[in-house]
Amino acid sequence: MYFLLSNLSFADIGFTSTTVPNMLVSIQTQSKVIRYKGCITQVYFFIQCLMLDNILLTVMSYDHYMAIFHPLHYTVIMDPKLCVLLVLACWMLSVLNALLQSLMMLWLSFCTDLEIPHFFCELNQIVHSACSDTFPNDVVIYVTTVVLGGGPLVGILHSYFKIASSIHAISSAQGRYKAFSTCTSHLSVVFLFYGTSLGE
C-alpha cells in the first residue's frame, strides 16, 4: 500500500510541477510566451502525470478491496511483486498515452502565432487552434478519455460497491467503522480528483 502511495505522491508532484514553475516565471517576468517545444513537453508531462494519477487511484481501490474483502489472504495476493507489476503497468499506460497525444500534436500545423488564454498549454485548446485537420486528434482524445478515463472510474466504482457490500455484512459497528475508515482517505482523493475533472 505504501509503495502505491509513494507513486501517487510522485505523480501528484509531477502533475503540479509541469505547470506551476512556468506560471511563476510568467508572473515574475510579465511574459506569457511559451515556446513550441516547451508547450509539447508540458503537454506530455501533464497528460502522463494525469493518467498515472488516474490509473493509480484504480489500483489503490483494488488494493483496498483486497484488504477488506480478503483480509487473511491480503499479504499473499497483494505481494510486493504484484504491486510492482501493477505500478509498472500504470507507468507504461500513462507514458504511452502521453506519447501518443504529443506525437499527434506534432502533426498539426498552425497558421499564425498561437495565443492560448491559459497559464499552461492545454491539449484541447491547442488542437482546436490548429489550421490543419484535427479529426484524428479528436478521435484519439475521445477514445483515450473514454478508455483511460472512464475505465478506471468504472473499476473504482466496482471496487467500492464490493467494499460497501462487504462492510454492510460486518455485524459489529466497530468492525464497520474500522473497515470503512481505511477507505475514507482514498475516497476523498477520488472525489477530489474526479470532482475537479468534471468541473472543467
From TrEMBL:
It is a multi-pass membrane protein. The keyword Chloroplast does not apply. It is found in: Cell membrane. One of its GO terms (cellular component) is plasma membrane. Residues 1-200 form the G-protein coupled receptors family 1 profile domain. Possible taste receptor. PANTHER family: OLFACTORY RECEPTOR. This is Olfactory receptor 7A10-like. It comes from Heterocephalus glaber.
